[in-house]
Design goal:
By secondary structure, the chain is mainly α. It is about 80% helix and about 0% strand.
């Protein structure tokens, strides 16, 4: 599940890179620059999150910024505003999935470890 979440976050980051051209707002500099920077940060965090689980909080903050930044930066096009709102909500929605999955994995691993028989040592011959 964490790998799926990571792949979906990378897909959102890729979408942020190519969407200005596909949606026709490549001339809206604040939207393009903000999207490119956030795509870079989201991709790095998605890749590194396996190493540092606490980066999920940073990823959620980036998603919130992505969702509200069109209002604060005054994007000129509706396509840029809606695209960043949707992408930001997607990044935020993807963030808690790995935390729940990770805690479930840890709990299941602990149960499995407790159910294993104790190792028996052999006497040296």
């Amino acid at each position: 599940m964490a790998t799926t979440k990571r792949a979906l976050t990378l897909a959102v980051a890729l979408w942020l890179v190519i969407s200005p051209v596909l949606l026709g707002y490549e001339g809206d500099a604040p939207a393009v620059h903000n999207g490119l920077w956030l795509a870079l940060f989201a991709a790095v965090i998605a890749i590194a999150e396996g190493l540092r689980p606490r980066l999920a909080v940073v990823q959620a903050a980036l998603g919130v910024w992505l969702a509200v930044s069109p209002l604060l930066l005054g994007y000129g096009t509706a396509a840029g505003r809606l695209n960043h709102l949707a992408a930001g909500l997607a990044v935020v929605a993807l963030t808690p999935v790995s935390r729940r999955w990770r805690s479930r994995q840890e709990r299941d691993a602990g149960r499995a470890a407790r159910s294993l028989p104790a190792p028996q040592l052999r006497e040296p011959s």
